[in-house]
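Render this sequence as a predicted structure.
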Amino acid sequence: MEQIPSVSLLLLLVGLSLASPVMKQVDGPEISMTKTILTINNRSSKFLLEGDIVTPTTRNAMICYSSGCFWRKGSNGKVEVPYIVSSEFTSNERHTIETAIKNINSKTCIRFVPRQNQADYLSYEPRDGCWSSLGRQGNQQVVSLQSGGCVTFGIIQHESLHALGFQHEQTRSDRDDYVVINWSNIDPDNSFNFDKTHTNNLNTPYDYGSVMHYDNTAFSINGQDTITPIPDPNVPIGQRVGLSSTDILKINRLYNC
């Protein structure tokens, strides 16, 4: 997350190590963004790759052979991503969604713009879970942000970056140089969520601090670490503050801005 030709959609985000903040449940212990996503999505009726990526029906989940997988850049050099936000969200939730995507606008060449009559657009909806498709799918494309858990700044940006074409950091092609996957702590039925993918890493370093990196115990069956950073196992991973510096760099490199 090599220069991005039209043959590759797989990219994973990378950046500076950030602190690993947590979110508080209303009536419970503090939990990370990863645990929030995976806990909520465990009840979803959809089959989700890596916990929150909708299984593609028209192409391989890891490779895109067409430039149509990406949002188009206009003559002004900006990449327009039309969107709508469901009226089913509360006014506060709508404000949080708008704030999170406008923050992406302010730091990259992406421009999330309210949809007028564009054929391809994102539809932020309070469905059953926190999930998104990978890259531009065409026509209406749902980004699900279930009320009561998914409508937080970090999760909104996480799912929005999936829609831009970014995968999880810990599945990028060079991850074994930076993390150890502890297979014995992962349910064998969920081990596919840790498969490495053939990714376009955009000549950027592995990013422990990416908003796309899952935390240490993602998909754990025993509470023990499933992902251990190396050589320093204490490096924080799984933050939910928002885009890291290298997340920003990768967005701009992917879209040639």
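Summary. Residues 1-30, 57-63 have pLDDT under 50 and may be disordered. The radius of gyration is 17 Å.
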